[in-house]
């Protein structure tokens, strides 16, 4: 192996070691996200049970609007795209609402046919 090929080989080996180290941190962050989401869904399930027991609607659009405003502000401060933060929250909230509708239906508080349209989408 000539000197230049050896240098390229060493440089690539160093890059792969750095990549592995960065990926370990990404893995740790992904694990933390999963644990945070699991905790969040535990709390939202409690909210769903509370709402179903007391006849409150599954979705609260005013609360969602306040959260979006707050998270967009936090995202801007953190140099994260606010549009992405909003999409991410909406994605999670949509799942929460499905859970709440199911809890309410299982509790007998709402009739599923009242909230699902012809295409199977929730109409809340
Ligand atoms: C969890 C709630 O229920 C719904 C889900 C929300 C969420 O996941 O943050 C926010 C508002 C509601 O549409 C709530 O009312 O607090």
UniProtKB/TrEMBL annotation:
<dbReference type="InterPro" id="IPR002701">
    <property type="entry name" value="CM_II_prokaryot"/>
</dbReference>
<dbReference type="GO" id="GO:0004106">
    <property type="term" value="F:chorismate mutase activity"/>
</dbReference>
<feature type="domain" description="Chorismate mutase">
    <location>
        <begin position="13"/>
        <end position="104"/>
    </location>
</feature>
<dbReference type="InterPro" id="IPR036979">
    <property type="entry name" value="CM_dom_sf"/>
</dbReference>
<dbReference type="InterPro" id="IPR051331">
    <property type="entry name" value="Chorismate_mutase-related"/>
</dbReference>
<dbReference type="InterPro" id="IPR010951">
    <property type="entry name" value="CM_bact"/>
</dbReference>
<keyword id="KW-0413">Isomerase</keyword>
<dbReference type="Pfam" id="PF01817">
    <property type="entry name" value="CM_2"/>
</dbReference>
<dbReference type="GO" id="GO:0046417">
    <property type="term" value="P:chorismate metabolic process"/>
</dbReference>
<dbReference type="GO" id="GO:0009697">
    <property type="term" value="P:salicylic acid biosynthetic process"/>
</dbReference>
<protein>
    <submittedName>
        <fullName>Chorismate mutase</fullName>
        <ecNumber>5.4.99.5</ecNumber>
    </submittedName>
</protein>
<dbReference type="InterPro" id="IPR036263">
    <property type="entry name" value="Chorismate_II_sf"/>
</dbReference>
